[in-house]
Automatic annotation (TrEMBL):
InterPro entries: Ac_transferase_dom_sf (IPR001227), Acyl_transferase_dom (IPR014043), Acyl_Trfase/lysoPLipase (IPR016035), Mal-CoA-ACP_Trans/PKS_FabD (IPR050858)
Species this protein is from: Buchnera aphidicola
Name of the protein this chain belongs to: [acyl-carrier-protein] S-malonyltransferase
PANTHER family: MALONYL-COA-ACYL CARRIER PROTEIN TRANSACYLASE, MITOCHONDRIAL (PTHR42681:SF1)
Enzyme class: transferase
Superkingdom of the source species: Bacteria
Length: 181
């Protein structure tokens, strides 16, 4: 979903993190105008994220094409534990579907709120965030039903790996999930 402020300026709905946290992305001036409109319409907090790319916006489509070419050279094996993509909010099992979702996630809305709802519906209690930050892990701190681990650095990766291996036996392994962002 996106909105054009002019013929050349685009704002996209980048992420729906929770019922009260929405992220927009796009042309800098258009994002500023949209933020001002949201403030006038009653938004309680407007935070300017310190990023240099219009992540999860239509402006990223040229980058998605480059990623598609790179993914053609990479083998992705079927996952052993469920992987949910953030575009369709569904489990992916085939290499083809995983690659297609990875390409689309560059320019599509992250549906994090729906992913958490799916995780809870499926009675999954352990989540591993794979990537360079703790954004998704931090979003789940208030949710006592899900144990979230960030692997943003080697120390946290080791800690998550030790806790998961210590607390998960084969029967519980089905309640562990991977998520990519």
């Amino acid at each position: 979903m996106y909105y054009r402020f002019s013929k050349k300026k685009i704002v996209s709905l980048a992420s729906i993190n929770s019922h009260n946290q929405i992220v927009i992305s796009g042309d800098k001036s258009a994002v500023y105008k949209a933020s001002e409109y949201c403030k006038k319409s009653g938004a309680k907090y407007i935070l300017n994220l310190n990023i240099n790319v219009p992540a999860h916006s239509k402006l990223m489509k040229p980058i998605a094409k480059k990623l598609k070419n790179i993914l053609r050279m990479i083998t992705i094996h079927a996952p052993k534990i469920p992987v949910i993509n953030n575009v369709d909010v569904k489990y992916e099992e085939s290499s083809k579907n995983i690659k297609h979702a990875l390409i689309r996630q560059i320019y599509s809305t992250v549906r994090w709120k729906e992913i958490i709802e799916l995780i809870q519906l499926k009675k999954i209690f352990t989540m591993i965030e794979i990537g360079p930050s703790k954004i998704l892990t931090n979003l789940n701190k208030k949710n006592k039903k899900i144990i979230a681990f960030s692997t943003d650095n080697l120390k946290n990766f080791s800690k998550a790996f030790q806790k998961i291996n210590k607390g998960i036996n084969e029967k519980e392994e089905k309640n562990c999930i991977n998520y990519w962002c």
